[in-house]
């Protein structure tokens, strides 16, 4: 029996201008009771739909029409006329977005500007004397106030008390909620939001280690970084650089960015921040300090580092693999300090404009605004096997359980194919896809149905860590590839399903070293590759 997969795809229905594109057909047409019809009129007057009201769900009307079947229509975009129109919860234009500085400083305002444009509203960002507190006003074309958003960016940890107190409709975080956050929500009777429809991944970012642009050092191991932060290494000469004293730049102990860096690189090496450090509260101040000091080293979100002329260091892992902070590497979550950017909501009724905005952030239209903010968008990139360099060499030269025949088969099957920048991963110790992978399934299926990969075979390639028996690991990776293939096949036409192929290469092509659980988790994934049919021998 195939594993059960909890598939709760995000809902994306921000407009009803194009019925085929933005209204989801969820059942076959129902026999409508003609004397109990309702009419839904778009607020911009562009279209109206009549049908029988089936019910309400998550601020959406469920309407059975005679021509289009049963539709889900977002209540905030339409006016309902008819005796059966339900009473919609009364909301004013105000709602709050609280949490992460990384997410809230640039990304959320830029996305709100894009959302305003998509609904024909004007956008205004209002600052206050407190840099962590701003307001965004969206005004309709007729001058009426569409929304006023209280935007507060006091750190990821502040998102969850704000959700619990009801002052925020959306909480944003540059990390996944942890057990402490769950406890804060539990006080208000709110359950754990992880791996639920109330957890949304807005995009991807990463912490990058930065040095002065004239510093010749281009990569460091986590141990070397740990020794810098502990004060054991104090001069760049010890690391192959010039005879320049090292200046360590850091943030406050409550900083989420600092927590990511310390937990990923310093503390796993049994060190802590015991070296003399210069602390900063502002991201740009950190960058300016490093750019002004040839001995400086620090860390910031890549979204900001990429707009400044600093040197971005690769992380050299203990087994020799390099982890570069590239877009592709971060999209596949294979970079040592990559991180997802989250939005959280509470179960039940939600401010309709906040729901419409959050749904819009998941659309193709929103990706340009994510890229404009210098974060990692969801657009697919491609990479060839021959571009993977050290991963191929490492597989053949370092892994103790290396199998030459399997390696040769992988090279034959994947040479000339393109790897897409999307991966599927499972919840810890389960056969259930994690929340981001569920969304990836939906997006891949949508692209296949839209003809994006017509004429190509779509290979779902399973990989595993190297702990245990190679044959068993290969079989486990095959099971995961088979699972993803079955899920996608259920979401596409039979013709497209026939183009799916599941295969496993087990321990080959590790993204990270297998020496720790973080690296092993990165290596357990299912990848997507595209190739022309019959361009290689039949998969075994």
Description:
With 540 residues, this protein is of the alpha+beta class. The chain is built from 17 helices and 25 strands. Strands 7, 8, 9, 10, 11, 12, 14, 15, 16, 17 and 20 form an eleven-stranded mixed sheet that branches. Strands 1-5-4-3-2-6 form a six-stranded antiparallel sheet. A five-stranded mixed sheet has the order 21-22-25-23-24. Strand 4 and strand 5 (69-74) form a beta hairpin. The relative contact order is 0.11.
| Count of β-strands | 25
List low-pLDDT spans.
Answer: 1-35
Count of runs of 4 or more consecutive helical residues = 17
**Largest beta-sheet details:** 11 strands, mixed
**CATH structural fold name of the largest domain:** 60s Ribosomal Protein L30, Chain: A
Bulk shape: globular
Name of the level-1 CATH class of the largest domain: Alpha Beta
The radius of gyration over CA amounts to: 25 Å
The number of domains: 4
> In percent, how much strand structure appears in the residues?
25-35%
Helicity range = 25-40%
Task: Report the mean per-residue pLDDT as an integer.
Answer: 84
For the record, give the distance between the C-alpha atoms at the N and C termini, rounded to a whole number.
23 Å
The CATH architecture name of the largest domain reads 2-Layer Sandwich
Instruction: Specify the CATH homologous superfamily of the largest domain.
Output: OmpA-like domain
Q: Which structural class should the secondary elements be placed in?
A: alpha+beta
Provide tags for this entry:
six-stranded antiparallel sheet; D-Maltodextrin-Binding Protein, domain 2; alpha+beta; eleven-stranded mixed sheet; globular; disordered N terminus; 4 domains; 30% helix; 540 residues
């Amino acid at each position: 029996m195939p594993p059960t997969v909890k598939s709760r795809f995000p809902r994306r229905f921000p407009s009803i201008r194009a019925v085929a594109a933005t209204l989801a057909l969820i059942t076959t047409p129902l026999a409508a009771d003609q004397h109990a019809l309702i009419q839904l009129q778009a607020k911009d007057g562009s279209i109206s739909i009549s049908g029988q009201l089936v019910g309400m769900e998550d601020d959406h009307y469920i309407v059975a029409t005679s021509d289009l079947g049963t539709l889900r229509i977002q209540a905030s975009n339409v006016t309902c006329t008819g005796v059966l129109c339900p009473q919609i919860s009364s909301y004013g234009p105000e709602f709050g977005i609280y949490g992460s500085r990384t997410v809230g400083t640039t990304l959320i305002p830029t996305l709100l500007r894009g959302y305003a444009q998509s609904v024909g509203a004007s956008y205004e960002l209002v600052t206050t004397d407190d840099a962590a507190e701003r307001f965004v006003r969206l005004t309709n074309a007729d001058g009426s106030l569409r929304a006023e958003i209280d935007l507060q960016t006091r750190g990821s940890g502040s998102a969850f008390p704000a959700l619990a107190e009801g002052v925020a409709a959306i909480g944003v975080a540059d990390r996944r909620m942890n057990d402490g956050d769950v406890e804060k929500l539990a006080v208000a009777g709110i359950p754990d939001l992880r791996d639920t429809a109330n957890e949304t991944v807005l995009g991807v970012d990463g912490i990058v280690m930065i040095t002065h642009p004239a510093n010749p050092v281009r990569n460091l191991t986590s141990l070397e970084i740990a020794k810098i932060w502990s004060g054991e290494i104090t001069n760049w000469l010890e690391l192959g650089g010039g005879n320049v004293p090292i200046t360590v730049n850091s943030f406050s102990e409550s900083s989420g960015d600092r927590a990511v860096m310390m937990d990923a690189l310093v503390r796993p090496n049994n060190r802590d921040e015991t070296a003399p450090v210069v602390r900063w509260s502002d991201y740009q101040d950190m960058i300016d300090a490093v750019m002004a000091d040839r001995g400086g080293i620090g860390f910031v979100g890549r979204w900001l580092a990429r707009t400044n002329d600093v040197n971005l260091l690769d992380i050299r892992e203990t087994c020799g693999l390099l982890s570069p902070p590239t877009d592709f590497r971060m999209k596949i979550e294979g970079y040592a300090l990559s991180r997802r950017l989250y939005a959280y909501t509470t179960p039940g009724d939600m401010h309709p404009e906040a729901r419409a905005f959050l749904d819009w952030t998941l659309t193709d239209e929103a990706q340009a605004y994510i890229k404009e903010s210098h974060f990692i968008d969801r657009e697919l990139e491609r990479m060839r096997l021959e571009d993977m360099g050290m991963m191929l060499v490492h597989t053949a030269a370092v892994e103790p359980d290396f199998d030459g025949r399997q390696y040769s088969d992988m090279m034959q099957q994947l040479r000339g194919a393109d790897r897409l920048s999307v991966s599927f991963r499972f919840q810890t110790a389960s056969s259930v896809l994690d929340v981001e992978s569920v969304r990836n399934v939906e997006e891949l299926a949508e692209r296949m149905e839209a003809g994006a990969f017509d004429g190509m075979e779509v290979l779902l390639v399973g990989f595993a860590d190297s702990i245990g028996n190679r044959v068993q690991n290969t079989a486990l990776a095959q099971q995961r590839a088979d699972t993803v293939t079955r899920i996608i096949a259920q979401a596409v036409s039979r013709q497209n399903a026939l183009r799916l192929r599941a295969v496993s290469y087990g321990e080959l092509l590790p993204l990270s070293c297998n020496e720790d659980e973080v690296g092993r988790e990165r290596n357990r994934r299912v990848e997507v590759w595209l190739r022309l049919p019959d361009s290689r021998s039949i998969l075994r």
